[in-house]
Amino acid sequence: MTGNTYGATKNKLADFAQSLGGLSTNKRMLLLCLPAVLFLLIFFIYPLIRLLYLSFFDPQFTLEHYSRVFTEGVYLRVLVNTLNISAQITFFCLLLAYPVSALITSVGSKIGNRLMILVLLPFWTSVLIRAYSWIVILQRRGIVNEFLMDLGLVEQPLSLMFNRFGLLVGTVHVLLPFMIFPLIANMSGIDKNLLKAAQNLGAHPVKSFLRIFLPLSFPGAAAGSLIVFVMCLGFFVTPALMGGRGDIMISVLIESQVREFLNWGFGSALSFVLLAITLLIYGVAAKWFGLSNIWGGKQI
Amino acid sequence: MKVARIIYYIICGLIFAFIAFPIAIVFPLSFSEVSYLQFPPETLSLRWFEDFFSDPEWVRSILLSLRVGATTALFSTILGVLAATGLNRAEIKGKEYLMGYLISPLIVPLVVMAVGIYGLFAPWGLVGTPLGISLSHTVRALPYVIINVSAAYQTLDRNLEWAARNLGANPLETFRRITFPLIKPGIIGGAFFAFIVSYDEIVLSLFLSGVDATTLPIKMWEGIRMEMTPIIAAASSIIIMVYIILFAIYELSKIRKKDKQVEQNN
């Protein structure tokens, strides 16, 4: 009995294989992509289309949700704030990543690899754990304040958290590796003999750096800045945990609109503004650097 | 010039300290004895680990995280290996667009994705269920599996497959005996990656978790917002330990494989 069923199944499978045999190898191979394509269509594309619909039709056709994003002072401020914070974070990431990337690429691979571990260790640690750590360090009775008060440098604990400062420290820490990776990829390709040649010809080291190394490292800095900026725009965890109440970013606003106020129309419109800006910047980046360079690393 | 160099090294040292410091304090903090945050802890104890493992909510959350991570790894590995095989074997025009579509979940901000999936799952009753959380994590993890397995395919020498076919093996047998063993490291790497993406995930889980389905990161998220006790540091240490165990297993399997090869060669 069991043998028969097995035989029948086998025959059916053989028939199916035969019918597939009618297709060219290419088409059969493409069929293998079908499950993943359908999965993403249902669980990724369709939800986004649904959001787009909701942003225009909640309850019937209206442009009110979008006009609220751009005309109501509170929300416009969040949008401007998000761009502003992202720009500041990109700046600080570049400021911190540049010297260490230059160091890692100039000390030889043995020490360079060890230093890279220092960069990778936090990179692989959960964003949540890092936010928690920073809260411990920066809170009112935290490590920094205790230290400063023990030294007698400050009388009252400084407020280092739930404001712009805390947000910048926490977020720069998370996004810094995304600046360091493209910089290292770029700087390790710079021929160090060029610098030696310039110095042999009498250029001051500072001048040879400014005239040779700095311009050659520009593509790495530009790629890193774009990635950090765009990732920061939609970043949620650290801004939600460490940012100030009056200084919120768009992702935090979206979360509260949808989860607390069940404000689907407005939340969807905000989501689409964020998505549109993100895709625009990725589009520009893809044109400049090619997509594979952007998608290389781990995302958060 | 020497002075400039020393200043440069000091600046780099400070930046490295900034990078490493937050990770360095988590472990010591979790062994503190008192309930307020004290660093460095004056007396050591395992109190917070005991609290963690005797609180059924924390234990449930870590078990759920492991389960959701394993489900996500399973789903995305099956879908990802099939898709990567198709992508790398079909010779068609516009393949890069198909690849672009398959890895596009990586560029959409997580909050936007979470809002969309939350809206879809709410009427289906999938919010607050392990399956709902796993499905949403699979969307995010799938591209990593595809990238990993595709990379393995690109380093594969196709002559080996042709040789097997010439010697009379059918396509399935060739895949099983030649192709699969060669891309296996890519598959395992992809599965590990998928697990970690899920195990670490907060934004999607925040929207999709419920009273009966709280993952470890969400439990920690609530803990950070409500009461800041070292039990969160203990939870962090446990998360990091799971990573270390996973990497150890991964590395050990590589070493074992090498030993086997050595044995075979002898």
Please summarize what this structure is.
By secondary structure, chain A is mostly helical. Helices cover 79% and strands 0% of the residues of chain A.
Structure description:
The complex is a heterodimer of chains A (300) and B (266). By secondary structure, chain A is mainly α. Chain A has one domain (64-294): MetI-like (MetI-like fold, Orthogonal Bundle), CATH 1.10.3720. Helix content of chain A is 79%, strand content 0%. In chain A, helix 4 (64-71) packs across helix 5. Chain B starts with a helix and ends with a helix. The longest helix of chain B is centred in the C-terminal third of the chain and has 35 residues, at 231-265. Chain B contains eleven helices and no strands. The mean pLDDT of chain B is 87. Chain B has helices at 2-30, 47-54, 56-89, 95-103, 110-124, 130-154, 158-166, 171-200, 203-208, 216-226, 231-265. Chain B has a single domain, classed as MetI-like (MetI-like fold). In chain B, helix 3 (56-89) packs antiparallel against helix 8. At the A-B interface, helix 2, helix 3, helix 5, helix 6 and helix 7 of A face helix 1, helix 3, helix 4, helix 5 and helix 6 of B.
